[in-house]
Amino acid sequence: MQLIAIEGKAPPPGLDFSTEEVQAMQRAVIRLFDHWKITDAQAATLLGDIAVRTYQRWKQGEYGRWNVDLAARLSNLMGIHKALRLLYTEAERGYRWIKAPNQAFGDRSALEVMLGGQLTDLMRVRRYLDSNRGAW
Q1: pLDDT tens digit string along 12-69?
Q2: 10 within a domain of the structure (yes/no)
Q3: Is the CB of residue 16 less than 8 Å from the CB of residue 2?
Q4: In total, how many domains does the chain have?
Q5: Has residue 8 got a pLDDT over 50?
Q6: pLDDT tens digits, 61-116
Q7: Could you tell me the pLDDT band of residue 135, with boundaries at 50, 70 and 90?
Q8: Would 63 be classed as within a structural domain?
Q9: Residue 7 in domain
């Protein structure tokens, strides 16, 4: 299912993903969440408050329908992962960073910020990491 125009409007720039691309991001996010050692409930929140059972079906390879919000969340999570891999040559340090207190977030961890549940919470963490890695 590709994003379709609503009321004659095209999807937001950069969010015109194919079903194959979204499913690839879903598979990658499942592995990422495993590295981050987060619960299925936390994963469901990060993915836009989807049902925990829906996330569990993803882990079994049943991806189902998706929308612009989910595609944007997956894209931001992939951006966070990429930025951490660029900032930390040792992958495990990046995986641990996600749960470490951070002054930039008022001594909360990036995970705590993202668990606010809004797309903008994911975007905030991504922007922070992107600004720290510079214009690579």
Answers
A1: 555 678 889 999 999 999 999 999 999 999 999 999 999 999 999 999 999 988 999 9
A2: no
A3: yes
A4: 1
A5: no
A6: 999 889 999 999 999 999 999 999 999 999 999 999 999 999 999 999 999 999 99
A7: low
A8: yes
A9: no
Q: Collect contacts of 109-115 with beta carbons under 8 A, ≥24 apart.
A: 110/80, 111/36, 111/38, 111/42, 114/46, 115/42, 115/45, 115/46
Residue type, 109: S
Domain assignment of residue 116, given as a range: 19-133
Q: What are φ and ψ of residue 109, in 5° steps?
A: -80, 165
Assess whether pLDDT exceeds 70 at residue 7: no
101, β-bridge pairs: 109
Q: Output the CA angle 51-16-126, nearest 5 degrees.
A: 65
Give the burial string for 5-31 (b: 16+ CB within 10 Å, else e). eeeeeeeeeeeebeeeebbebbeebee
Q: How many residues does the chain have?
A: 136
Q: Which residues pair with 108 in a beta bridge?
A: 102
Range 117-127 burial, b when 16+ CB lie within 10 A, else e: eebebbbbbbe
In a domain, 1, yes or no: no
